[in-house]
Amino acid sequence: MNPNLSWKYRLLAAVVSFLGVLYIRFVVLTSRVRIHRHPAMRSVIEAGRPCVFALWHRDQLMMAWAHRNYGVHVLVSRSKDGEIIAGALHRLGYRTVRGSSSWGGASAFKELLDVVASGGQAAFTPDGPRGPSRTIGPGLTALLAKTGAPLLPCGCAGTRIRSLSSWDRFVVPLPFGRYEIVFGEPVTVSSDDPAAEAKVRAALDAAVAEAEKLLWTSRI
Questions:
Q1: Strand arrangement, sheet containing 121-124
Q2: Which of 73, 76, 82, 216 is the most exposed place for a label (fewest CB within 10 A)?
Q3: Is residue 2 part of a domain?
Q4: Cα dist from 72 to 40, 61, 87, 133, 218, whole Å
Q5: The domain that contains 71 carries what CATH number?
């Protein structure tokens, strides 16, 4: 929680996060949602191994629903928007680590490092919270390299979405659609790999592309 926020805003954030989760539940109940997990990804999860999920900032809503109630630690900024996001994630069974590159980043990174190093699971939006879109910040690759944990790339696609005019073209899923959610093949990153960021970006783009392909083929 951000202690600098007024109680009125914290109350507002709690209400908005509650309504947001209700909305996602309504979207899922009125839509066809299919989740595809790579066999190697299932092996990591079923064995309870430490790992790091990663997805583009724009795809947070459906991805948060798809992997709810696993107790995954998610990096969330300490901004006002972050307060709303954190509230929604808590309702979906996630744990949050608060911080970003502009505020509390060092302590948040250390906390995530401790989580993964001790066998836990974390989640990152590497181009958040401010972008630019589809960029990979050094925090994610450093976390992967220091812990040796695999990256699990995530992507989704849907027939009924609205893209906002924000920097990331944030995706709002709409009811009565069809959605494909992909958890892709795990990727490992070493500290001496000069192509680490490119490898992570390619893995995330591949997960999104696979979701789009599945969505297209399901129409045939």
A1: 32-37, 178-183, 151-158, 51-54, 121-124, 73-76, 95-98
A2: 216
A3: no
A4: 18, 15, 14, 23, 30
A5: 3.40.1130.10
